Automatic annotation (TrEMBL):
Pfam families: Polyketide_cyc2
Gene3D superfamilies: 3.30.530.20
Origin superkingdom: Bacteria
Organism classification: Bacteria, Bacillati, Actinomycetota, Actinomycetes, Mycobacteriales
InterPro entries: Polyketide_cyclase/dehydratase, START-like_dom_sf
The protein's name in its UniProt record: Polyketide cyclase
Length: 152
């Protein structure tokens, strides 16, 4: 197995989006919207009606390989921050975290930071995919999210 110390285990990307944080957050906190902006090309669908509102919520998502992921919300502040730990249904999360942070700049502009943290990931089978999740892929999600938030 390749050594995983050759790449950062926490990657992030930020950009300014010309939309209010509430508008952007709605696209992130509603899992059925996530496949529209996923720059990692990993998500296919989530059932409507799973809008996240609290730490402890769990939403399910189908990923491109066809399996289901349960996403456990571990950080939540409405219109400001959301983070989740994905897991196979009924299993403990293996330790990788997706985080979104929104900082209002004014009434119509928001700085959005997207972070993928796999510093606690212990499943060797997931390490290659984690290593391939680069800041460029996070930036692709931000760019797609911006295109939707700024257009609608």
């Amino acid at each position: 197995m390749a050594d995983h110390t050759d790449v950062p285990r926490v990657v992030s990307a930020s950009r300014e989006i010309a939309a209010a944080p509430e508008r952007i957050f709605e696209l992130i906190a509603d899992p059925s919207q996530q496949p529209r902006w996923d720059g990692n090309d990993n998500l296919t669908e989530a059932q409507p009606g799973q809008r996240v509102r609290h730490v402890g919520d769990v939403f399910t998502m189908r990923i491109t390989v066809g399996s289901i992921r349960e996403n456990h919300i571990v950080e939540f502040e409405e219109a400001r921050r959301i983070a989740w730990l994905p897991a196979e249904p009924g299993r403990r999360p293996p330790g990788h975290l997706w985080r979104w942070e929104l900082e209002p700049l004014d009434d119509t502009r928001t700085r959005v930071t997207h972070t993928y943290d796999w510093s606690q990931l212990t499943d060797p089978a997931r390490l290659p995919r984690a290593r391939s999740t680069t800041a460029d892929k996070l930036r692709a999600s931000l760019d797609r999210l911006a295109a939707i938030a700024e257009r609608d």
